[in-house]
Amino acid sequence: MDPGDEVADRVFLETTRRFAPPRLARTDVAMALALAQVSPGKPVADLGCGYGRHLKALVEQGHPHPIGIDRSALLLAEASAQAPAARLVRADLQALPLYADSLAAAFCFYSSMFLGSDEESRGALEECARVLRPGGALVLTTDNPLRLSPSSHFEEEVEGLGRVVEESAFDGTVDRVTKSITTDSGVRLSATFCIRYYAPPALSDLAARAGLVLRSAPLTESSPQLVALLEKP
Ligand SMILES: C[S@@+](CC[C@H](N)C(=O)[O-])C[C@H]1O[C@@H](n2cnc3c(N)ncnc32)[C@H](O)[C@@H]1O
Q1: What is the pLDDT of residue 3?
Q2: Strands 87-90 and 188-196: what pairing?
Q3: Which of 111, 172, 178, 219 could bridge to 142 as Cys pair (CB 3.0-4.6 Å)?
Q4: Contact 86/55 with Cβ under 8 angstroms?
Q5: Cα 217 from Cα 196, distance rounded (Å)
Q6: Averaged pLDDT of the chain
Q7: What are the pLDDT digits (tens) for 158-206?
Q8: Gap from CA of 55 to ligand 1 centroid (Å)
Q9: Confidence class of residue 37 from pLDDT cuts 50, 70 and 90?
């Protein structure tokens, strides 16, 4: 997914908001806040905030002005409707327009830091380490890499949207997911997302190279997601 790829952003937006109910974002945020142990009102950011579903939940759960960072203008416009009091900034996660040591906690839901190369993942983690205060937490979530199959296919007719088809191929590190929507009027939108996965030992190495310490990332085959708590020493 390239920066500024509006078709990919549109496909992500239309499919995720149909398939992921708001209560899921509320649960993600409650879990992340409990792990990060951050007091209400402290400066927090959602890195790769997308259309703002977690920002909305952060506002509801005691953080009236969370910072939302994303590179997509389209998704940020949606985020400002979802969470009008959030501070939204269009930027790359590898070059955060934030002061060093300024955040009490950062969150990264659903692999937003890991949509590029290994080097880019490390760059995003390094930036996060720079802007967190000492002792500040990063909570990040991804799908559970132990549960991804080498290939999968999903198809559904979604009312008001059209036919949604999703195909993915996972090589043990990168999941290449192609999503397409064919609307009732015959318009076809298609985008491929390459999501890099790190099992806890690899994540621990990557975090250490970026200046963060992996504190916990419990994972078994039955875990629905990988939920990792990292800390800036
Ligand atoms: C899989 S989506 C998840 C969005 C959001 N966290 C959620 O769960 O709804 C990934 C998001 O990260 C953003 N993103 C990916 N790489 C980025 C980068 N290098 N800089 C800024 N934003 C990035 C994308 O624009 C997209 O909104």
Answers
A1: 45
A2: unpaired
A3: 111
A4: yes
A5: 17
A6: 96
A7: 999 999 999 999 999 999 999 999 998 999 999 999 999 999 999 999 9
A8: 13
A9: very high
Query: Which of 53, 66, 45, 221 minimizes the C-alpha distance to 140?
Result: 45
Among the atoms of ligand 1, which is closest to the Cα of residue 108?
Answer: 6
- pTM metric for this prediction: 0.96
5 lines ligand 1 (CB under 6 A): no
Distance 169 CA to ligand 1 centre (A): 20
Atom index in ligand 1 nearest the CA of residue 93 equals 20
What the block records as the tokens of 102 is 């300024």
Contacts of 205 (CB under 8 A, 6+ apart): none
- The domains found in the chain, sorted by start residue, are 6-145+199-231 (3.40.50.150), 146-193 (no CATH)
